[in-house]
UniProtKB/TrEMBL annotation:
Name of protein: Homoserine kinase
Subcellular location: Cytoplasm
Pfam families recorded: GHMP_kinases_C, GHMP_kinases_N
Alphabetized UniProt keyword annotations: Amino-acid biosynthesis, ATP-binding, Cytoplasm, Kinase, Nucleotide-binding, Threonine biosynthesis, Transferase
GN (gene name): thrB
Length: 296
């Protein structure tokens, strides 16, 4: 029997919440597993975004199978091999948590196979260990907005619902930014005043979502820890942010480690905001895709 699971795209950092805040979006990667009692390794087939690249990669390094093995090890059951089908709707390497979906997808598949002994909390611990930071994997497991802190062998995670009126204009330029590279451009030190401002913005972001004071996002999305350093990796980033605001968005930021740019807005403006952002890339001859999304 084939098992099928899905995992959502996630937008990590949410501006000032570097490595701790993340938001689940209603765009999904779907994973299927068919056990094969005779198999001695995982085999894969890929459809969707980046399937051609994924097909060429070493199957032993695929995060889906590695995540499945982690679950079997955790519950002390023998590894069950078989065929994994991955259907990717989320653009990879664009800051929308596609690798987190592979980790979470693998965890969910194996957990279902062994009759779900592991809780979401258990899965988050494994996922955080695999990814090194919890801000994509937490919302990929729990949905909504997550604020997660990874400790040595546990993860403290809180989940809050995202106001229904909040919509997301997501613009994905054809610019690949690996998370590893985007982390290498970050500084070792930031001025104390800038760090203090980040604490206040991140707190304001969370409390404004809880209290539905969405106009605060204009300030609450501003960040000093990564956006100033990473925006040089994304052509015309500042112009796209300005275009989003001029078209009526509350604010905009880099999604995860980029290159995707995400504007927070309401339903009435989301389409115009997305188009205004896209027009900047059009003007400079950069290909892009637009997604109009809501929280998952
Ligand atoms: N918090 C991580 C980073 C997310 O910004 O590097 C990567 O998707």
């Amino acid at each position: 029997t084939t098992i099928r699971v899905q995992a959502p795209a996630t937008s990590a950092n949410c501006g000032p919440g570097f490595d701790c805040l993340g938001l689940a979006l209603n765009l999904y990667n779907v994973f299927e597993f068919t056990p094969d009692g005779k198999a001695t390794s995982f085999t894969y087939s890929f459809t969707g975004y980046g399937a051609d690249i994924l097909e060429k990669e070493d199957p032993k390094k695929n995060l889906i199978g590695i995540a499945m093995e982690q679950v079997f090890a955790k519950v002390q059951e023998p590894i069950q091999y078989g065929h994994i089908k991955s259907d990717t709707l989320i653009p990879p390497s664009r800051g929308l948590g596609s690798s987190s979906t592979a980790i979470v997808g693998g965890l969910l598949l194996a957990n279902e196979l062994v009759k779900t002994p592991l809780s979401k909390e258990d899965l988050l611990i494994i996922a955080n260990r695999m990814e090194g930071h919890p801000d994509n994997v937490a919302p990929a497991i729990y949905g909504n907005l997550c604020c997660a802190t990874g400790l040595k062998d546990r993860v403290l995670n809180t989940v809050i619902p995202v106001p229904e009126s909040l919509h997301f204009a997501v613009v994905v330029p054809e610019v690949l930014v690996s998370t590893e590279y985007a982390r290498s451009v970050l500084p070792n030190h930031v001025p104390f005043k800038e760090a203090v401002q980040n604490v206040s913005h991140a707190s304001l972001f969370v409390t404004s979502l809880i209290t539905n004071q969405l106009t605060n996002l204009e300030v609450a999305l501003e960040d000093n820890l990564h956006v100033p350093y990473r925006k040089t990796l994304i052509p015309h980033c500042d112009k796209v942010f300005s275009a989003a605001k001029a078209a009526g968005a509350y604010g905009a930021t880099i999604s995860g480690s980029g290159s995707t740019l995400i504007a927070y807005t309401d339903k009435a403006h989301v389409q115009t905001v997305a188009e205004a952002m896209g027009q900047i890339f059009d003007f400079h001859g950069i290909e892009y895709k637009i997604y109009i999304l809501e929280a998952d």
